[in-house]
Amino acid sequence: MSDYHIQLDRQDRLVHFLTVEGLTHRHLTEILDTAESLRGVAERRIKKLPTLHGKTVVNLFFEASTRTRTTFELAAKRLSADVLNLNIATSSAVKGESLLDTLRNIEAMQCDMFVVRHEQSGAAEFIARHVKPHIAVLNAGDGRHAHPTQAMLDVFTIRRHKPDFPNLSVAIVGDILHSRVARSLIHALNILGAGEIRVIAPRTLLPAQVETLGVHPCHDPRQGLRDVDVVVMLRLQRERMEGALLPSEAEFFQRYGLTEERLALAKPDAIVMHPAPINRGVEIDSRVADGPQSVILEQVTNGIAVRMAIMSITLGHHARSTEENA
Amino acid sequence: MRTVIQGGRIIDPARRMDTVADLFIAEGKIAGLGQTPDGFVADQVIAAHDRVVCPGLIDLCARLREPGQEHKATIASESAAAAAGGITTLVCPPDTEPPIDEPAVVEWIRRRAKAAGQARVLTLGALTHRLRGERLAEMAALQDVGCIGVSDGGHPIANSRVLRRALEYAATFNLTVFLTPLDPDLGHGLAHEGQVAARLGLSGIPVAAETGSIARNLELVRDLGVRVHFGRLSSARAVDLIARAQADGLPVTADVAVHHLHLTEIDLIGFDSRCHVRPPLRGLRDKDTLRTGVAAGVIGAICSDHQPHEPDAKLAPFGDTEPGISGLDTLLALSLRLVRDEALSLPAVIERLTWGPARILGLDRGHLGVGAIADVCIFDPDAEWRLEPDVMRSRGQNSPFTGWELQGRVVQTLLEGRSVFAGR
Amino acid sequence: MGNAEFLIEALTGQLRELLTRRGITDPALVGIHTGGVWIAERLRQRLGITTPLGQMDIAFYRDDFSRIGVHPQVRPSELPFDVDNRHIVLVDDVLYTGRTIRAALNELFDYGRPASVLLAVLVDRGGREVPIEANAVGTRLQLPASDQIELIGPDHLQLRIQTVP
Question: What is the location of CATH 3.40.50.1370 in chain A?
């Protein structure tokens, strides 16, 4: 069995972006550095680069998410690509068309990149295995598995504030079990050599053997938040209450919600992050979310540059691989 | 028709026999072994030098997809695959469409199997009407038309009261009950709850989904004395539970699907939907303990848990695919691999594929004693081959063993003395 | 290997004369990564220009993206002044096909509308593929296409000419 992963070409270059797992420090640094170069574009009079002029990016969303789709759309447009938004959740899938049928149809429209969101873990990888070779696939969230662009914008934001990764202590708080964001972020932090990663949640919201991901599980935020440099709060989905994973939002907030008092346990210059949208008063207090240590809106801004970087890198490598194989 | 199989290594576990001898068959029955029976004149001679001659394999769980899912496979297509795999008896669980909960379905399957004529197809009747776990099925009627046991057909009965009554009722007619060891509420998931599920973000099925169900059912057996067979164990702790129950003298047996003796959760990496099975592939220690359980006889049979699929059933993101492996083509070779791995001796492996399952079914089959029905498998234990979709006889080509180098290949299969498969 | 300081001196003289002739008193210098930035900084000091140096990495504006992709070590472009109505001097080390300058002009105009743009290059080696010419040139060289010319820096700038096999 080969450990060659579908998202890398034979020269080890990223041609799809499906998961952070298995990538190297070099891959992640290339993305972060490229994103750094793209961050200034938003301040220019013309907020657009010609890089992907003539390319077509398709947002293939099998799970509705206006917010995520918008950031990919903006990133693609800032690179001059044409963007097509397809919400499959409300179209073909219900008519019984198979996922592969849908793919074949869209491929026939001469597209260059699929940005995929799907409720099933592994869906982006499945699509990458079945698309025509000239198409790059970006994972915009597959089930509980991965949300690699979100993880990259998170580490990008952390690096801008706390570049000393070996001495970095990060706490991730909330529903780790169902969180693709957490899984990808844990991989990214470990690859970049973060000193310590703690996951803080009641046991119902932690996957079995979570420590094998390279984290320290902790059930008490009073211990888990102590002296950390970064606090990442995860969004709590309402339906978890119905699944008998939690008794109530109120009890969760009371035990795990990020309040000013709890944040005071972290280092004084600790930053607070959240993948958004936030549930005020469920996982985070408004005073913290809007407070001086919060970088939540900066994450949103950085998300555009990071996604632009990933789009230009993967499509660029695709071009290069095609050229070399010609 | 009289046949002599000459010079083969005869392995007949029921009689602890492992010897090179000639085997004589007359009128569909074993006529003798070693010395030519008086007056026997062969119409046909099968040379079996350097081959193993053993009873035809008995597979305790094979989905033939008929009636109801003919787009996946048919009784004819899968009987042919069974014959090519040395399997002469297939046990079909009741989860067909419609389920085997009324005599007409049993009759229909029997007719189709007879028309195909390449393997014996036995049926398990449903424990409850439509397998819904609510009302008892007409088990006595099903027994009358030939069902050799009753089963939940992969849909475990959640309600303990209904289950207890179903067991009692089955015990009335001395029927063996084939249960799926799974707590349906804990069993919602896609993968073993462990490090691979944590990594891939697949919902987990804890070991307790299996052991919790077994523990409850063992207590019911203790109360009622009914014969229960637990199909497809997947975990080390389940093996321990069954071993202890057997030591206590409870009338319980168990089997394992051959893929659980070779694969683990690690094989799911890359979201390989061919490894999407129920029960899920578990950890390395589970695999090792299952092998130990087979060796010790706690697990009395190895089955294929054959579930052929059309290609589309596996062509989707992992969680949207249908579980199951097409296993008839590989049951023998994968079982023989246990000999190479020094987990079991060759006669022991053959026992778990023949006499072992026959005893679980309470049938006088799976042996080569004089007078027995001449279901015989002749295989070349040294033949090396590589599993590729195009060499599979089953209509379902969904096997994670594609590309594996296997050893041991069937050269001829006899069903009631009649050749139903002859290879190179 | 040739010392580039002499060429920079020549380029400074030409550029000073050009700016005077045009009556440009406060130009903004923009170096193109990597060699162009080194030269632009030296020009800025020698000409006594107070406006901080601009830097551009034209990676995202290249016309060969569909063949080679984005350079893995792209650096941020930074123009620490308002481009609108400004007299800009674009600086690069070697002018060859002209494609880099084409890309740089496009990028520059995405920042604003300059009053004028001049081009200063250390070496013009001919071989143009687009209609672009420099306003100030350190030296002109005729080199076969197989030769590669490269500026080594950032401290002691040296020109290296190599024949690519």
Answer: 3-147+301-325, 149-294
Q: Chain B closest CA to A51's CA: distance in Å?
A: 32
Other beta carbons within 10 Å of B370: 11
Pick the CATH number of A3-147+301-325 from 3.40.1280.10, 3.20.20.70, 3.10.129.10, 3.40.50.1370: 3.40.50.1370
**Any chain C CB within 8 A of the CB of A49?**
yes
The tens digit of pLDDT for each residue in B254-271 reads 999 999 999 999 999 999
Residues of A in contact with B197 (CB under 8 A): 207-208
List chain B residues with CB under 8 Å of A99: 316-317, 320
Instruction: Kindly identify which residue of chain B lies nearest to residue A178, measuring between CA atoms.
Output: B201
CATH number at residue C151: 3.40.50.2020
Cα C103 from Cα C124, distance rounded (Å): 17
- HSE, side-chain direction, 13 A CA sphere, residue B410: 32
Q: Provide the residue range defining the domain that includes C8.
A: 2-63+76-163
Pull the structure tokens for residue A66.
């206006």
CATH code assigned to A149-294: 3.40.50.1370
Q: Which of B12, B22, B305, B375 is catalytic?
A: B305
Residue C116 domain-assigned (yes or no): yes
Structure tokens belonging to residue B96: 């067909």
In chain C, residues with a C-beta closer than 8 Å to the C-beta of A34 are 70, 72, 74
* 3-class state of residue A137 by DSSP: strand
Residue B305 bears catalytic tag:
yes
Q: What is the mean pLDDT of residues B301-318?
A: 96
Query: Which chain C residue shows the shortest CA-CA distance from A320?
Result: C68
Q: Which among C60, C74, C112 has CB closest to A45?
A: C112
What is the number of other CB atoms lying within 10 angstroms of the CB of residue A269? 10
**C138 to chain A nearest CA, in Å?**
30
Q: Which residue of C has its CA nearest to A323?
A: C67
pLDDT, tens only, B317-370: 999 999 999 999 999 999 999 999 999 999 999 999 999 999 999 999 999 999
| Chain A closest-CA separation from residue B274 CA (Å) | 13
Q: Residue A25: its chain C contacts at CB < 8 A?
A: none
Give the HSE-up count for residue A22: Cα atoms under 13 Å, Cβ half-sphere. 18
Look at residue C71 and tell me if it is in a domain: no
- Note whether residue C68 is domain-resident: no
Residues in Cβ contact with A91 at an 8 Å cutoff, skipping those fewer than 6 apart: none
In a domain, C128, yes or no: yes
Q: Lowest mean pLDDT: which of A240-254, B146-160, B301-315?
A: A240-254
For B48-85, letters b (16+ CB in 10 Å) and e give: beebbbbbbbbbbbbbbbbbebeebbbbbbbbbbbbbb
Under 8 Å between Cβ of A181 and A233:
no
